[in-house]
Every structure is written in structure tokens, then in C-alpha cells.
Amino acid sequence: MIDDVSKAIVIDFEPFYSADYTLRKMRTEEYINDKRFQVHGMAVAYPGGRTDWVQEKHIDKWLYKHRKAPLVAHNMYFDGLILNLKYDHVAPLMLDTRLMANAVFGPSEISGGNSLEAVAERFGLQPKGKIEAFEGIRSESLTAEEWQALKLYATNDADLEYKILHKMLPLLNRQRFELWLIDHTLRLYLCRPLIVSRKTATAAIAKVRARMEDCMRALPKMKFDYSYQKPYQKDGAKLKREVVVTKDVDESVLASNPQFSQLLLQTLAKHSAKVPMKRGKNGMIPALAKMDEGFLALSSCPIPQVRKLVAARLAKRSGDTQIARLQSLLTASKFGGFRIYLNYCGARTGRWSGGSGLNPQNFPSPARSTDDFEREVAQLIRDAVRCPRGMKFVAVDAANIEARVLAWWAAQDDLVQAFGAGIDVYSEFASGTFGEEVRKPKDTDSKKAAARFKLLRAAGKEAILGLGYSMSATKMEARMRGRPDVSPLFESGDLNTERCIAIVDAYRKRYSKIPALWRKTEHAFHTAVAGVAVSVGKVLFSPLRETGRSGVEVHLPSGRRLRYRDVRVGEHNDRVTSTRKQWVYGAGKGSKLYGGLLVENIVQAIARDILAEAIYLMESEGFWVAYHVHDSICMVVPSGTAKAALKRCSDALSEAPLWGQGMLLGAEGEISDSFI
Fold first, then answer.
1. In which element (H, E) is residue 14 found?
2. Of 73-82, 236-245, 601-610, minimum mean pLDDT range
3. What's the rounded Cα separation, in Å, for the pair 559 and 591?
4. How far apart are CA 246 and CA 255, in angstroms?
5. Which of 136, 212, 461, 615 could form a disulfide with 319 if both were Cys (CB 3.0 to 4.6 A apart)?
6. Where are the alpha helices (DSSP H) in 169-275?
7. Using an 8 Å Cβ cutoff, are 604 and 402 in contact?
């Protein structure tokens, strides 16, 4: 069907909506399943650009007639779900011009977030019409004039989408393969929802709420003075005055940054202590985020009241997040199950991102949880997402894929061979850093020994992954202090500022070809900006060939390209080294560029292409790929074939693609009844 894209028909449903019944306030599934849902009709644009309007009563007949036709929409997540839920229709090929725009322009390069209006403007096409005139009007209440206006609006949109489709197709690299990936991404959401255990989700909500209540009960009765600016009017002018109120400490105070900051300030002041601060966009601000070093330090503060306040705030903020996630799962269960929404090319590198209110990429990990309660809740959330009966989840991770790709591209052969030999490079680097044996914990290890191995290896992993992209000692220290799986090493004295500097120096000396790669990449980028193409290994940097646009195209080994548009010298405040001149790209103030960041972008893009080819291979062999994230694939397979599926997917992710000759990959996975 990919070869029939020239025969694709653009569709655009026009449903009823109102001020309180709109996609701005509701999930797509909720909106379509609502009793108020009504389709006025559907605009279509046929090959060649002819447009038509299909009345709602004729849509079933139209779909049957065109049942073999590829269908395209701008946001097929919406139009495709209408097709699925209301007309029991799934097209043989589904494409989305919004997702194509992500690949062609980048997910956020166009002001407006790749909306139809924004993409049309980017191509210099006629502006999209206005729909506001039809707000709140049911089909049966539309006048003849309103029907005519609605048809004109809808067919203009369909025509616009058709023109956009055919302007973008030539700009889509690896067109056939990437179109397949778009179709695959849409089907994850539209065709195979996973089952939600309402019992498990409800039990998890009750457990989280009980924890929050326990933390509130542990707080002593406290009051504090809260000041805020209250708006008022005088003689027609808008003014503000400061108001001071005395408040009891409740959950709303714990959830509010300004209120909690004042509460903490007044509590610490009584003991001649200060609120920890951090650098924000506009100067210093209170460090109140969960992973802020200063805030984490307060959890062991000698003042009991402060420790209890910190525990209660963490329970409140984390609890609200987990309850919202679980409530979304319960809502999803009402409408057929948990639909996996992934945003194709949602990141600059081409990686998928999550979205639509329930992002499985952000599900808490039991393995990374900091205490038994968090670990239990994280597992309950995953247990709430189930396979159909008689099926298993099979998840396979591409082991150390970014570090392997980086070593391969940099020609850091000793590191490449270490990965190929199955050496645990994270443990090895940590052993050299800390001067003691480091390895993955074994079941036979004592609890204390296993915990130390885990801490030291996590530090080695953080160093290997972060330092490969030119991370400084200052940044590495800040990141490690902010990670619960590493930060105890600072308390024990195993890590400090001097040790972090030594780690950076040791990494750059041992793997010297990687710092050389940063310099070569930055030079190649600058050369391409000047109009000359140059290669760094198997990656080609060339001037951007778009009329009226400056920039660089990065040609990846797979054949896909990354585009950096509107490249110029600008000022960028990195919040650490202050404002300095450097390369930036994109609209507005632009995004910063330097050698290490370019290397990171390219390595992640190559890793994405490896994962994508493995996904294609598994689905072409008949496996149901239910979900994937960055470096892992999760399949749903019959229980009796789970072991075979695990081996096949591990082999697929361990085999370098034809364009990655010399790359030594690896993979590991597991079988589970729970969502992985």
C-alpha cells in the first residue's frame, strides 16, 4: 500500500462542538464516545485535487466504495478514531500530514506546533478558514446558508491538506520506510488498545491517597502568614495591593510553590536557617523541585517540622501525578482500553515522544523507585495495564545503544570491542573510578553489598552516557546529586567536586577519540554553514538546499536527514557560564548548538533508526509491536510463543543494519504479565 500513496484520499470530518464540549477540554476517545457527538459530514480531496462533501448519511456507503483506498488527514488520531469507533472502518494505509510535518520541519520549528494553519503558512498556501461560526449548532439546526458555508469551509481544508501532502512527500527522506512508520504509529493508537484492570487501578489510587493522608496527619498543627497581590480597580484603573492572610497548612499549601515557599521560609527562619535556592530563568528562585539538590537535602534536615513538611509535599506532588495517571487509565477503560499514543518524530532527532495526557514513557519504574512505597505503586500502575487473555508482554532493550553507536561513529575501537565482548563497561569504568570491584548485583549478594554495587554502577553509567556528549564536571556533579540512585555516594564521601573533575578527565583521556569527534562535528557543521559539504565518518554535513533559508542538512548513515534551519550566531544563556556568543538555530531566540550537543542529536537519531528497522522487521514477521520507547520494543504475543519472540526480537536488535557495518550491538529482555 505504501506504493499507492499517489492514490491517497484526504478526509476531514466536521463534527459538532461547543464551548464546553471540545477537544481542548476532553480526550479524543471521551469526545467521540460522548452522547453529544455528531458528525455534520466529511470533506474529501481525491487524487488530482478534486474536492467533495459527503453528507453524514452517505459516509458508510462512501467508505465501502473506497474501502481499499489509503486515507490521509491532518491529525489522523482524531479522524481515524471516528472512522474506527463510529463507522467500523480501518483504512489499509493511514497517513497524517501533521506527523509528516514533524519529520520535514521538526516538531516545534513552526510557530503553532505544526497546526494546519502553521504548515499552510510555511508553504505559502491560502490561510485556513474559520469554524467559530458553527460553534454550538447541531446538524438539525443548520440553515441552508450555514450548510453551504460549512461545506465550503470543510472542502477548502481538504484541498489545503491535499496540497500540503504533495508538497511534503518529496521532502520526506526514506519516503517509503518513513510512511510505513507513520502508519504503524497511528495503528498503535487506533487499532489495538490494551486492557485496563479497573480493580488494580482503583486499589493503587486508594493506596496513594492513604499515603497522602498519613503524611498530612504526621504534620503538627501549623499556621503561617501568606502574602499575595490582589487585583482591584480604582477610578477605572487596574491596580494591585498586597494582602496578608494567616493560613492553616493543608494539601493546597503543599501543592502551591508560592505558598509552600513562604511556609518553608517562615519555618526555617525560626531556626536561623534559609530556604535552598537555585538559578531560574530570571534569577535565583527557591529550590522546590523533587530532584533539586537543595530540596533533597531538606529531607534529612535536623528540624523535625521541616522533614515532615518535605515528606508531605513529596507525597502530595507525587501522589497527585500518580492519581491523575491512574484516573486516566480508568477513563481509558470506559472507552475500549488503553490506546498507546506516540508522536512520530516528536523529537528533533526523529524519536517518538508521548502525549495525549497519558504518556506511557513517563510511567514510574519499580527498579528506579527510591523507597518500598514508590516501588509498590509503580508496580501497581504497570499491573493495571494487561494483555488479552492467553497473551504475554515481551520487552526487549537495545543494550547501551547510545554508547555503542557513539563508540562506533567515533572509531573508539577499544570501546566498540568491549561492548562486542559483552564487557559491562559501566561497571568497568566505575571500578577504575572508585578503586574497587563493581558489577551487577547477584541474588547471592548481601543486601548491603547489592546496594553498593547498584550505586557505584549507576554512577559509572551516568558518567559513560553523559560524558560522551561533552558534559562538564559541574553539570555531571549536579546531575548525580539530583539522582536518588547516585546521590547517596556524595553523603558517603565516595563522590565530591574533586572526584567529579577527575572522572571527566579520566573519561576524556581514556576515550580520546570521542572528544575529537565533538571538535570534528562542530567544525563540519560550521563548514556546511559556510556552504561546503564535509563528512565526519559516515555522517555528511551539507548546506541546506531550501530557497531563502540558511542551515545545514545532516545526512545519517540510514539515508534519513536532520535539518537545522535558520542557523546563525546568537546569544544563548546557558544559566551556568552566563551569556556568550554561539551557534543557534530555529525560530525566535533559537536553540543552542555546539559539538557535544550535535553529537548527541546524531547518535540518538542513528539509535532511533536502528530501533525503527527492528520494529519493521518484527511486524513484517507477524509480531504485534504494542509499544516502543527510545531503545526498547514491547510486544504482545501468545504465551506459548513468548520465549521464541523474545529471542527473535533480541536477535533483531543485536544485528547491525547494512548501513551500520562494524557496529556491535546487543539486547536483553523479559517476559511479563504486566506492562513493561
1. strand 9-15
2. 236-245
3. 25
4. 17
5. 212
6. 175-190, 198-218, 251-255, 257-269
7. yes
Burial 495-532 (b: 16+ CB within 10 A, else e): beeebbeebbeebeeebebbbebbebbbebbbbbbeee
Q: Which amino acid is at 214?
A: D
What are the grid coordinates assigned to 457, written together? 554502577
Per-residue pLDDT reduced to its tens digit, 266-321: 999 988 888 888 888 778 888 888 777 788 788 888 899 999 999 999 899 989 99
Q: What is the DSSP string of 272-316?
A: T----EEEETTEEEE--STT-HHHHHHTT-S-HHHHHHHHHHHHH
Under DSSP, is residue 379 helix (H, G, I), strand (E, B) or coil?
helix
* Range list for CATH 3.30.420.10 in the chain: 2-191
Q: Residues in the chain, how many? A: 676
Stretch (H or E) spanning 3: none
Q: What is the pLDDT of residue 220?
A: 86
User: CA–CA distance from 224 to each of 66, 246, 247, 251, 647 (Å)?
Assistant: 67, 6, 6, 14, 60
The three state secondary structure string of 76-103 is HHHHHHHHHHHHCCCCCCEEEHHHHHHH
Cell numbers given for 128: 485556513
213's CB contacts (< 8 A; 6+ apart) are none
CA neighbours within 13 Å on the CB side: how many for 551? 19
Helices 425-434 and 413-420: crossing angle, nearest 10°?
A: 120
Measured CA to CA, the distance from residue 86 to residue 98 in angstroms comes to: 23
Burial 5-41 (b: 16+ CB within 10 A, else e): beebbbbbbbbbbeeebeeeebbbbbbbbeeebebbb
Task: Report which of 443, 333, 325, 365 is spatially closest to residue 632, judged by C-alpha positions.
Answer: 365
Q: CA 486 to CA 465: how far, in whole Å?
A: 14
Among 358, 278, 277, which Cα is nearest to 323's?
358
C-alpha cell at 237: 484603573
Fold of 2-191: Nucleotidyltransferase; domain 5 (3.30.420)
Query: What is the identity of the amino acid at 640?
Result: G
| pLDDT above 50 for 74 | yes
Q: How confident is the model at residue 1 (pLDDT cuts 50, 70, 90)?
A: low
- 130 grid coordinates: 474559520
Do strands 9-15 and 71-73 pair parallel, antiparallel, or not at all (unpaired)?
Answer: parallel
Of the two residues 364 and 628, the one the predictor is more confident about is 628
